[in-house]
């Protein structure tokens, strides 16, 4: 498939991956699996770049923006939202005139418009969000397989061309993603507050409960392990994400309190029927997810 200056001939394309952490490293591994022409790794951490080169994940590593970026047909920013904006500001002068830039940040806000405002000519930024995280952080935790069967959200803005949207959807499927959906930035952030931000907050809160002690490990089974899996997260990234989506997260916390209040009321009233109805409703919804 060829679409104007957007090619899906993966072996002919050079990619730059900005950020050699969990997601950036996973992108690099998936791109290597895809067989792209060349991978340029970008990071401010020289050690992470060296590790990526030693593992064969990138063909060349650069610290920050540099002339090597002029080779990139596609740039994937796998860093914090503010860092994405700062990187593009420093890199714009080096980029190809028709470069396509995308990201992997969990909250969009005004980022698409802010980044596009730094670009010129046919340069285009299109926001994306692979729902493909995993426990832990850093390059050592990265793996290409996190994309296999994962959901991928394409978040187009008014300025995006249809060919850019189509390209990103095709790229997500080539990575191995299953469902690829398209949604506006505001709606993305509202939904993500429920499906991603809230579960991470719950996992942290559950682990931080006053009931946790040194003997807890001897009394857990699958439900506790599943419920707390994502408590092992990057606190610097996630504090940024929570604050960037603060209003939506606060609304979801309020909605959750309403549900917990229903549990408290049913238990206090010794109301088995109310408990059963809540669990039956949840079971039906859960089965509908998969």
> What number is the mean pLDDT?
93
How much of the residues is beta strand, in percent? 5-15%
**Rg, nearest Å:** 21 Å
Sheet with the most strands: spatial strand order? 5-4-3-6-7-8-9-10
Write the layout of secondary structure elements.
Layout: E1 2-3, E2 6-7, E3 14-18, H1 22-34, E4 38-43, H2 46-54, E5 60-63, E6 74-77, H3 81-91, E7 100-103, H4 111-116, E8 124-131, E9 151-155, H5 162-175, E10 180-182, H6 185-207, H7 222-228, H8 235-244, H9 246-268, H10 272-289
Parallel strand pairs: 3-4, 3-6, 4-5, 6-7, 7-8, 9-10
Antiparallel strand pairs: 1-2, 8-9
3D structure, described in words:
The two termini are 31 Å apart. This protein has ten helices and ten strands. The mean pLDDT is 93. The strands form two sheets. It has an eight-stranded mixed beta sheet with strand order 5-4-3-6-7-8-9-10. It is elongated and about 70 Å long. The protein is of the alpha/beta class.
Question: What is the gist of this entry?
Answer:
The protein is α/β, with parallel strands linked by helices. The protein has helices spanning 22-34, 46-54, 81-91, 111-116, 162-175, 185-207, 222-228, 235-244, 246-268, 272-289, and strands spanning 2-3, 6-7, 14-18, 38-43, 60-63, 74-77, 100-103, 124-131, 151-155, 180-182.
């Amino acid at each position: 498939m060829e679409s104007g200056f957007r090619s899906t001939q993966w072996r002919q394309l050079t990619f730059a991956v900005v950020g050699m952490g969990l997601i950036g490293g996973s992108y690099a591994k998936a791109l290597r699996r895809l067989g792209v022409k060349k991978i340029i790794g970008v990071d401010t951490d020289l050690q992470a770049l060296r590790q990526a080169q030693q593992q064969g994940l990138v063909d060349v590593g650069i610290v920050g923006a540099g002339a090597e970026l002029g080779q990139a047909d596609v740039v994937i920013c796998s860093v914090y939202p503010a860092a994405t904006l700062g990187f593009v500001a420093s890199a714009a002068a080096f980029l190809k005139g028709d470069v396509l830039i995308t990201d992997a940040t969990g909250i969009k806000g005004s980022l698409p418009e802010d980044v596009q405002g730094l670009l010129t000519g046919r340069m285009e930024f299109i926001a994306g969000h692979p729902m493909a995280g995993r426990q832990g952080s850093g390059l050592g935790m990265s793996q290409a397989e996190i994309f296999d069967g994962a959901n991928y959200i394409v978040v187009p803005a008014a300025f995006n061309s249809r060919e850019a949207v189509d390209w990103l959807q095709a790229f997500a499927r080539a990575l191995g993603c299953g469902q690829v959906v398209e949604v506006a930035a505001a709606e993305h952030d509202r939904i993500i507050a429920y499906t991603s931000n809230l579960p991470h907050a719950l996992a942290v809160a559950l682990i931080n409960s006053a009931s946790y002690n040194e003997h807890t490990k001897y009394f857990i089974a699958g439900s506790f392990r599943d419920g707390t899996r994502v408590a092992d997260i990057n606190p610097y990234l996630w504090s940024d994400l929570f604050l960037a989506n603060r209003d939506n997260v606060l609304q979801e916390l309020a909605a959750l309190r309403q549900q917990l209040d229903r549990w408290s009321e049913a238990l206090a009233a010794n109301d088995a029927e109310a408990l059963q109805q809540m669990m039956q409703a949840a079971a039906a919804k859960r089965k509908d997810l998969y």
